[in-house]
Specification:
The structure holds two protein chains of two kinds. By secondary structure, chain A is α/β, with parallel strands linked by helices. Chain A is built from nine helices and 27 strands. Chain A has a five-stranded parallel β-sheet with strand order 5-2-1-9-22, with helices on one face. A four-stranded mixed β-sheet of chain A has the order 8-7-6-21. In chain A, strands 15-12-11-19 form a four-stranded parallel β-sheet. In chain A, helix 1 runs parallel beside helix 8. The radius of gyration of chain A is 22 Å and the shape is globular. In chain A, 56% of the residues are buried. The longest helix of chain B has 22 residues. Chain B starts with a helix and ends in a 7-residue tail after the last helix. The chains are: A alpha/beta, B mainly alpha. At the A-B interface, helix 6, helix 8, strand 27 and helix 9 of A face helix 2 and helix 3 of B.
Chain lengths: 481, 51
């Protein structure tokens, strides 16, 4: 009998747990440890944030789903990993703390760390909805708060006031620019729908060196006889909608009515707002690790950013020397063969976008995105490897390198079944490989993007399809990640 | 928005904007984009079940 423990019930953890359970025999156990009681289909949070959906439409309770699937669910936040057990017993275990402060010991034979990100609003003074001056759509509750604030702004504009909206990222090292991009274009669409667009000034603020970078170095698209960088399309989309932009920016401080920022070229600026939705930077969730003697070994398992070390090449090297082969393939811990990381929890070897610093030393470099499709595919590959290792394999049998997989992404630009649009994009591979594809780092026949109503239909279809799949309804395994 | 900035940005023609929500064209694009995405998904899922 083997015990597989999954920390986290986001896209990566939930996928890994569901597949492991379906592939393992009934003698083996799968346990999910997560502090949240609900699953959240995060890509649809932006629609909650503009008031088109309620949090209940993007979440569902995990306990009944896991009970039906035969997965044990421990609602608690993982705190410590003891990969060698302790003096009394050599069985590896994790400790997890419940909401009422009780600490539980959860033993494992195989561990998947899929704890996702910690939302580090604290990295920028005044950032965030909890005690700060800006809003967020990272969690359903944050998004609902943003929707309520937006409704108030609309009421003020209906009374004739002009209001200023600022959307983007709240720190030089943020990731998920794509989500903030979806939010700003949906916001603009909603203001038009509600008849107040002419009273709104909308500005995008980003750490991207160029628009359309999205933390993956942008992309090049074949269109109209040219290979065109994504910044052209992104700027066009903003210009068409009357959205202004500030790029290459590190937000230093968020005051109640303005942000202070510096840029890569050393310029310092401020931008006033009445409504600001700014995403936070991420780190790992701060798990610690201890050996059998109780000595702390956190540094062996995690990088200083608290993401987990896996089979990547973490040797510091200049951007010119980055290689696709630096990226992990099996997501196995180099120190403990029964520990894996999946989704945002694994430590990337470096960024994908070219990093920059301001003259004052602020790092202005989008962190690599690893949400959605790659998260789920990594979770599934890790589950496959573990099932094979339980069956006798000596090493991981499956890989899911972001430098070898593509991604399909649909970015909503307005939600309406007849007048809405979305940008449909595919990239192959996610991490550019300039050895295989010397010109642009990607296969130009498999990297494309276009905007239109069809994209919105696909986005709606994916919303329902992936929630159906996550509920583990009949046939869920046939729906691809 | 800054007029000078907007002067140097590519903007779509009216026909391009029209096509974005023209139902027959979008029905075709729905099928075409789905096929492209399925291709990417297939290429990325290589033997991902246990052996």
């Amino acid at each position: 009998m083997s015990r597989v423990v999954v920390l986290g019930a986001g896209i990566a953890g939930h996928t890994a747990a569901a597949f492991a359970r379906s592939w393992l025999g009934r003698g083996d156990t799968v346990t999910v440890v997560s502090p949240r009681s609900d699953y959240n289909w995060v890509p649809s949070n932006i629609w909650v944030g503009v008031g088109l959906m309620k949090p209940a439409q993007v979440t569902f309770p995990l306990a009944p789903v896991y009970e039906r699937a035969g997965i044990e669910f421990v609602q608690a936040a993982a705190k410590e990993i003891h990969p060698e057990g302790d003096r009394d017993h050599p069985t590896p275990y994790v400790t997890a703390e419940t909401a009422d402060g009780e600490t539980r010991k959860v033993p494992y034979d195989f561990l998947i760390n899929a704890t996702g990100p910690a939302l580090r609003f604290d990295k920028t003074d005044g950032l965030g909805p909890e005690g700060g001056n800006s809003l967020s759509v990272c969690l359903p509750a944050h998004a609902a708060q943003a929707a309520a604030a937006l409704a108030e702004e609309v009421e003020r504009m209906r009374k004739g006031e002009r209001r200023r909206f600022l959307v983007g990222v709240g720190h030089g090292t943020c990731t998920c620019e794509g989500a903030a991009f979806e939010y700003i274009v949906n916001l603009e669409f909603e203001l038009r729908n509600r008849g107040v667009r002419d009273r709104a000034e909308i500005t995008w603020i980003t750490n991207e060196y160029e628009l359309g970078d999205f933390g993956m170095g942008g992309m090049h698209l074949k269109r109209g006889g040219y290979v065109t960088p994504s910044c052209i399309f992104n700027a066009s989309l903003f210009a068409e909608r009357g959205i202004d932009w500030i790029t290459r920016a590190h937000v230093q401080k968020v005051e109640p009515d303005r942000v202070l920022y510096e840029t890569v070229d050393g310029r310092e600026g401020e931008k006033e707002f009445d409504f600001a939705m700014l995403l936070p930077p991420f780190s790992g969730v701060g798990l610690t690790a201890f050996d059998s003697e109780g000595a702390e070994i956190t540094e062996r398992l995690f990088l200083p950013n608290e993401f987990m070390r896996v089979d990547a090449d973490y040797t510091p090297k200049p951007h010119e020397d980055w290689r696709a082969s630096d990226w992990p393939r099996t997501y196995q811990s180099p120190d403990y063969e029964n520990i894996f990381a999946a989704g945002i929890a694994f430590a990337p070897p470096h960024a994908i976008s070219v990093p920059h610093k301001s003259p004052k030393g602020a790092v202005i470099a989008p962190a690599p995105p690893r949400t959605g499709m790659p998260s789920a595919m990594i979770g599934k590959a890790v589950a496959s490897s573990i099932v094979d290792m339980i069956g006798g394999a000596k090493a991981p049998t499956h890989t899911a390198s972001m430098a070898e997989m593509g991604a399909a992404c649909v970015a909503s630009a307005g939600a309406n079944p007849f007048t809405g649009t979305a940008a449909s994009m595919t990239v192959y591979p996610i991490v550019p490989d300039f050895e295989r594809y010397p010109d642009y780092g990607r296969d130009q026949d498999r990297t494309f993007g276009e905007i239109g109503l069809a994209g919105h239909w696909i986005k709606i279809l994916l919303h329902h399809l992936f929630l159906y799949k996550a509920r583990l309804r009949p046939g869920w395994r046939r729906i691809p990640e | 928005m800054d007029d000078e900035k907007i002067q140097y940005v590519t903007k779509p023609t009216r026909f391009t904007v029209f096509l974005r929500t023209f139902l027959p064209w979008q029905a075709w694009r729905f099928a075409a984009i789905n096929l492209k995405m399925v291709g990417i998904i297939r290429r990325s899922h290589h033997g991902d079940s246990p052996k």
